[in-house]
TrEMBL record:
<feature type="transmembrane region" description="Helical">
    <location>
        <begin position="7"/>
        <end position="26"/>
    </location>
</feature>
<keyword id="KW-1133">Transmembrane helix</keyword>
<keyword id="KW-0812">Transmembrane</keyword>
<keyword id="KW-0472">Membrane</keyword>
<protein>
    <recommendedName>
        <fullName>SMODS-associated NUDIX domain-containing protein</fullName>
    </recommendedName>
</protein>
<feature type="transmembrane region" description="Helical">
    <location>
        <begin position="38"/>
        <end position="55"/>
    </location>
</feature>
Length: 232
């Protein structure tokens, strides 16, 4: 709680206490019951003042919020630095697309609007190359100060295991190899490439990043006096 607010509340409660005390004394005979009432009011008032002083002293809500804000902003910067390299191949139509996209709303929107490749094709990844990035994201996700709604939006990167696709029929004719913050080394075959334990289209995968950006922006705006105009 802001120190000025605490001081104002103490002044307000002190004034109220003195007014109530004056009314009781003025309107009552000064007997045992009045003494009990005054004692009760005084005790309650003293407890309230002590609670306010201790609350302001430790200021734990402000400390926790500052830690939350710090970890959210760190995550936002980390996500915004993400570069995804795309290597699409369709062996039946002989269509190939190679490109990169940042986790940026405008870049992603432009990519999805253009018919460069089939965005519904399933993504595959090089597990070892991706591990460091995923581990870093999971450290954000499991941080005790990370707001729950933002942590939940990162669930799509919780990769418990990878499944090799080298001999899977559904990946032989069409796939999208993606590499995050690194260059794809193996363009020619599926050896060493994996899915995330389940089939996920590129469209779903990239839109999950947008959902994370939305959750971050919503949380920041919710806890700000003015709308944050972020470059997302």
């Amino acid at each position: 709680m802001n120190k000025n607010i605490t001081n104002n509340l103490i002044i307000l409660f002190t004034g109220s206490y003195l007014v109530i005390l004056s009314i009781i004394i003025y309107c009552s005979e000064f007997n045992t019951n009045v003494v009990k009432d005054i004692t009760l009011i005084t005790t309650s008032f003293s407890t309230l003042i002590i609670a306010l002083l201790l609350y302001d002293r430790f200021n734990y809500r402000k400390i926790i919020f500052e830690r939350k804000l710090e970890i959210v902003l760190d995550l936002l910067e980390h996500i915004k630095k993400t570069r995804i390299q795309i290597n699409y191949r369709n062996t039946e139509t002989l269509k190939i697309f190679v490109g990169t996209v940042s986790v940026d709303r405008l870049e992603i929107k432009n990519l999805l609007l253009n018919n460069y490749f089939n965005k519904e094709a399933k993504i595959i990844l090089e597990a070892i190359e991706l591990r460091d990035y995923v581990d870093e994201i999971m450290r954000f996700k499991t941080n005790p100060f990370m707001p729950i709604e933002i942590a939940n939006s990162l669930e799509f990167l919780s990769m418990e295991y990878f499944e090799g696709v080298e001999v899977k029929p559904e990946y032989q004719s069409e796939y999208i190899k993606i590499s995050i913050n690194k260059s794809v080394k193996n363009f020619k075959d599926l050896k060493g490439w994996y899915n995330l334990g389940k089939e996920i289209s590129f469209d779903t995968f990239i839109k999950n990043y947008l959902k994370s950006l939305d959750e971050i922006e919503n949380w920041i705006n919710k806890h700000s006096n003015t709308e944050a105009k972020l470059n997302l």
